[in-house]
Specification:
heterodimer, A: alpha/beta, four-stranded mixed β-sheet, 21 helices, B: mainly alpha, two-stranded antiparallel ribbon, 2 strands, SBP (chain A), ABC transporter substrate-binding protein (chain A), cell membrane (chain A), Bact_solute-bd_prot1 (chain A), lipoprotein (chain A)
């Protein structure tokens, strides 16, 4: 009886406590916010904040917070605050790299404390966190519609100013104002094992789809390695194929954000081994000819890194960010090479390049935190060597290219131009409406290519016709003008 | 009488209400405690179940993403659900899971019957068979991903049994069997839990009945057919209903093991893809509501079916029960007599 009473009491206590904790938690944060507003923001500024054209005024008046105005080591040295950074690089948190970056940052700015939170399922979770609003000061911008950027993020400055010092500045741009600075840049190519290709007797890097399929066949015939490892089971590694249909397959920097949305049947056969058709056909043909792994449904992403390092895999179609991971995965890091995607447009090869996740700064943070966050972003971009260490295209204009791009001699990097003003959201809408989700998580459609190729129940042209149909009906629903 | 009653009411009404006094009274204390204890669970229930459900119901009439503007489209989403072949096509996969659920219940019932009698090491068996239920579904997914990998665990075990690797199918790649492979993982996970429930029910059967039946010459199967099954009818019905509604909303095995690719995308997996990849939140909400209605209908149909199918059994059951009672009485009398005479 006594025990029962104690149990009941403690249950009640726990319940009420948890309720109270919830209540006080939100109350506290609200209180902090109002405090900061009262003490640190001049009334004039608050009105400016809420004004529609706040961004324009901000950049116009001198001395305002802007990326280009910050001089590292001099500006905002007096700020003492703690900022929180929500990042997708959980691997770098685990390896301690992030801590060492922050430690170095604190040598210059000892009074700014940086807290890091890693999120594993980033693309989905970050979007939810962004909507909920409790994500801290710096976030890696997830897939938001561009017209909403100003509701969430602090502007870094006008495109003209920022693009002078930073690459890919137009990735998260709206109304000529930049809301995101890339963490690192990726070029799109194929990571391969040089030793395996050599053993297979391949002397020149393939430049066309036929040469590439022939090379895979040679790897199959002459070595024990899996010619092309698809990483089908991981899913997102399949979605990575979308990254080749723009610059690499067309040589046009306008294709992805300006032309594709207006194109009639973008997945048709253009007859010259270019465009999306040629990209996905490589995957279909490789599967149909048995040049991929035996049981694709049980591939293992973590395991594949060691396998390519040991020469059990010929190549994998992944962005340049994957290169350093493959090199580090075993003893034969020297064997790993990086080549461009085997499509030649009009006798010339191109490689799509683009930014990785971008840093966005919380528009609702206090002024001190906004400034501290922007200082940190600028430091990460210019001083940390982050992009270089990651094997990425440098973000800072005067940054140095890492060695892996040596094989890209004579190949032109193509960074996508942003959408025309007023059309920023159309690609997103078409993607959602057609459910093809190009470059935004449309993994299942590419997995389906492998399934149909392996089972032989659909020809490649039938698949592409289906996609064209979905694209066309989405264009009709969204109401996009189809020009060519 | 009416006048008197009225007077009473009037005096009652006129009497001023002292809250503190009321709160100190036994009745007041009772009410306060009841309200206080009800408040927290009801609040939790409302905030985390009914409120989100209401929101979802509202979403199903909008064309919307998670963020950004919302547009009211009326029943358009519902029409889409019925028009698209991937939504209802996915429900066909539920047949695999319903089939699996039947197998699972049969295994559970069989093992429960055996284990409810005295078996050497019975508790250990029970423990082993219940154990999978305690592992998280995600972990099970990863276990089976490796289990089914070509040339890994399952193939190796089968090779020990004399199978040739060339003759074995690709458990997850071959579209004719990959759904069965997935269903098998779910059977493995849940049959132990069903079994424990059945054992619990069987334990509550009066042990004297077995003795009586044995004396009457009933074998084990007849004991099962005429004593155990009628006695645990309720829990069997419940388990069937739970398994079938669970089959309609199968999610974890296909999501974790195959990520819904290769023809294994169940209704839930498709719904997840539509909601989170294509961000058609309205359409996905409509799918959820439609599934809810389907589950309601399935449950009601099953209820009706069991009511109809079990009615005869019930009638028979009451007669059989009476007969059993009589039998028991006779048996007791006989024993008593025997003791007296012996």
């Amino acid at each position: 009886m006594k025990l029962k009473k104690v149990l009941a009491l403690s249950m009640a206590a726990v319940l009420t406590l948890s309720m109270a904790a919830c209540g006080s938690g939100s109350g506290e944060s609200a209180a902090v916010n109002t405090n900061e507003e009262v003490t640190e923001e001049a009334p004039a500024e608050t009105t400016e904040e809420t004004g529609e054209d706040a961004a324009a005024e901000d950049t116009a008046s001198a001395g305002e917070l802007s990326y280009t105005n910050i001089v590292l080591g001099e500006s905002y040295k007096d700020i003492t605050t703690t900022i929180k950074w929500l990042t997708h690089r959980t691997d770098l948190i685990d390896s301690g790299m992030i801590d060492s970056y922050i430690a170095k940052f604190n040598e210059t700015y000892p009074d700014i404390t940086v807290e890091v939170e890693g999120v594993t399922n980033y693309a989905d979770d970050a979007l939810l966190r962004l909507t909920a609003g409790n994500w801290g000061d710096i976030i890696m911008i997830p897939a938001v519609d561009k017209n909403l950027l100003s509701e969430y993020f602090v502007p870094y400055g006008s495109l003209d100013d920022v693009s002078e010092v930073v690459r890919f500045a137009d990735q998260w741009m709206y109304d000529n104002t930049v809301y995101g600075i890339a963490s690192t840049g990726n070029a799109q190519g194929i990571v391969y094992n040089k030793a395996v290709f050599e053993q297979a007797g391949i002397t020149a890097i393939p430049k066309t789809p036929e040469e590439f399929i022939a090379a895979l066949q040679a790897v199959k015939d002459n070595t024990d390695a899996i010619p092309l490892y698809t990483n089908y089971a991981a899913g997102w590694t399949m979605g990575a194929w979308d990254a080749y249909i723009n610059g690499s397959a067309t040589g046009s920097s306008k294709y992805m954000n300006q032309e594709l949305i207006h194109t009639q049947d973008p997945f048709q056969n253009y007859g010259d081994d270019t465009h999306a058709y040629a990209v996905y056909k490589i995957l279909y043909d490789a599967t149909a000819n048995g040049l991929i792994e035996d049981d694709y449904t049980t591939t293992d992403w973590e395991g594949c890194k060691g396998m390519i390092n040991n020469g059990e895999i010929g190549c994998m179609v992944l962005g340049s960010w994957a290169y350093s991971q493959m090199v580090d995965a075993g003893e034969h890091g020297d064997d790993i090479g990086y080549m461009s995607f085997p499509i030649t447009v009009g006798g010339k090869q191109y490689a799509s390049a683009g930014p990785d996740y971008n840093y966005g700064i919380n528009v609702n943070a206090s002024d001190d935190n906004k400034a501290a966050a922007m200082v940190f972003v600028k430091w990460m971009t210019e001083e940390s060597g982050f992009a270089y260490n990651e094997g990425g295209v440098p973000i800072s204009m005067d940054g140095e290219y890492p060695a892996l791009y040596s094989a890209f001699d004579g190949i032109e990097f193509i960074a996508d131009e942003p959408a025309v003003a007023g059309e920023e959201d159309i690609l997103n809408e078409l993607n959602a409406e057609s459910e093809l989700n190009i470059n935004s998580g449309g993994d299942s459609k590419i997995q389906a290519i492998i399934e149909h190729a392996a089972n032989g129940d659909m020809t490649f042209d039938e698949i592409m016709a289906q996609w064209n149909e979905a694209w066309t009906s989405a264009q009709e629903t969204v109401g996009v003008e189809v020009t060519n | 009488m009416s006048a008197a009653a009225e007077r009473v009411v009037q005096t009652k009404e006129k009497k001023p209400f002292y809250f503190l006094k009321w709160a100190k009274s036994r009745k007041g204390q009772q009410t306060i405690i009841i309200v206080a204890f009800m408040f927290i669970p009801l609040l939790l229930l409302f905030t985390f179940t009914y409120f989100p459900f209401g929101e979802m119901f509202k979403f199903s009439f909008y064309k919307m993403k998670y963020i950004g503007p919302r547009k009211f489209v009326g029943l358009e989403n519902y029409i889409q659900v019925f028009k698209r072949d991937d939504c209802f096509g996915a429900l066909k996969l539920s047949l695999y899971y319903i089939g699996g659920a039947m197998v699972q219940l049969a295994i559970a019932l069989y093992l429960a019957t055996i284990l409810s009698f005295k078996v050497k090491g019975g508790s250990i068996f029970k423990g082993f068979m219940f154990f999978p239920y305690l592992i998280s579904g995600i972990a099970i997914g990863f276990i089976f991903k490796f289990f089914y990998t070509r040339g890994f665990v399952f193939d190796t075990v089968l090779q020990w049994c004399g199978f040739e690797l060339e003759n074995l199918p690709y458990w997850l790649k071959d579209q004719s069997i990959n759904n069965i492979s997935l269903v098998a993982t779910s059977v493995w996970r849940y049959f132990g839990q069903n079994m424990v429930l059945f054992i619990g029910a069987i334990m509550s059967v009066d042990a004297e009945l077995y003795e009586a039946a044995e004396l009457d010459g009933a074998n084990r199967f007849q004991q099962f057919r005429y004593i155990i099954l009628p006695s645990i009818k309720t829990i069997v019905t419940l388990n069937v209903i739970l398994s079938i509604t669970g089959s309609l909303s199968a999610f974890e095995p296909p999501y974790v093991i195959t990520s819904g690719a290769n023809g294994t995308g169940t209704y839930f997996v498709i719904m997840n893809e539509i909601a989170h990849v294509s961000q058609k939140v309205g359409l996905a909400s409509a799918m959820a509501i439609v599934l809810l209605v389907i589950i309601f209908i399935a449950t009601i149909l099953q209820k009706l079916f069991f009511k109809y199918a079990m009615r005869d059994a019930e009638d028979e059951n009451t007669v059989a029960g009476l007969r059993r009672e009589k039998k028991l009485e006779r048996y007791r009398n006989r024993r008593r007599k025997g003791r007296v005479t012996g």
